Amino acid sequence: MKPVRLVAGRSEALGYDARFDYIGVDKGAWHCLCSGIPMICAIGDFDSISKEQLIKLQSATEVICLPKRKNETDSEAAIALAKDRGYEQIYLYGGLGGRMDHTLANLYLMLYRDHTLVLEDAHHEIRMAKAGAYSLQKRFRYLSLLALEDSVITISGVAYPLAHRTITTKDIFTVSNEIIGEALLTVEKGSVLLIQCEDEKNGIESY
After folding, report:
1. Among positive and negative, which fits the CA dihedral 96, 70, 113, 78?
2. Do residues 2 and 20 touch, judged by C-beta distance below 8 A?
3. 12-63, pLDDT tens digit by residue?
4. Alpha-carbon torsion 24, 25, 27, 28, what sign?
5. Which of 124, 127, 145, 165 sits 20 to 30 Å CA-CA off 107?
């Protein structure tokens, strides 16, 4: 079964990738429709699009309308839907940036509920790495690792390799590394936040 990409509101730059199935989430479903990205369905309360846009969505794909007053976020409901339909690899695109509460809520979904969830946008890929070995494909310029608990890691194929290094939740020296070869991360103990990212194309340099 293919992985599924849940397309949230901040997804204007997203293009179609045939390796994924797609579910539109609220305004993200409209972006999919406008970009010619085929969806298996769309879900949300659709308070971010017009009634006319919603009607066009309903004529193009299955639409699951949620109440505007609810305990779950649209992204949370979309993840539950994807799981109900049998997807095990779930990517959430367009759920970073914008409102900080929504960004943190999506991070919380990954950290405390759905550890295999991957968060993406045009400049970031964020995932959780628990104990194990990971072959890292270069997506963006920078690679950062942040400990979620006291952890021991080894990483090679990067500008700043580490061997059996303990990192704690207070450490940030593992920010802004770069993949330069066949990168391999081994989390020997603990768990880390694995972030690949790049600067937005606006001339701003890294800190």
Report:
1. negative
2. yes
3. 879 999 999 999 999 999 999 999 999 999 999 999 999 999 999 999 999 9
4. negative
5. 165
Q: Is the dihedral of CA 150, 153, 158, 159 positive or negative?
A: positive
Look at the block and give the residue holding tokens 């970009």: 35
Per-residue CA distances from 14 to 10, 61, 173 (Å): 9, 19, 32
Q: Please report, to the nearest 10 degrees, the dihedral formed by the alpha carbons of residues 47, 54, 14, 16 taken in order.
A: 150
The one-character DSSP state at 185 is E
CB 92 within 8 A of CB 76: no
Encode pLDDT of 170-185 as tens digits: 999 999 999 999 999 9
φ and ψ at 159, to 5 degrees? -65, -35
Residues 6 or more apart whose CB falls under 8 angstroms from that of 42 comprise 23, 24, 25, 29, 32, 57, 61, 62, 63, 64
* Angle at 80 (CA atoms; ends 194, 19), nearest 5 degrees: 60
Element (H, E) at 104: helix 100-112
Summarised one tens digit per residue, pLDDT across range 57-87 is 999 999 999 999 999 999 999 999 999 999 9
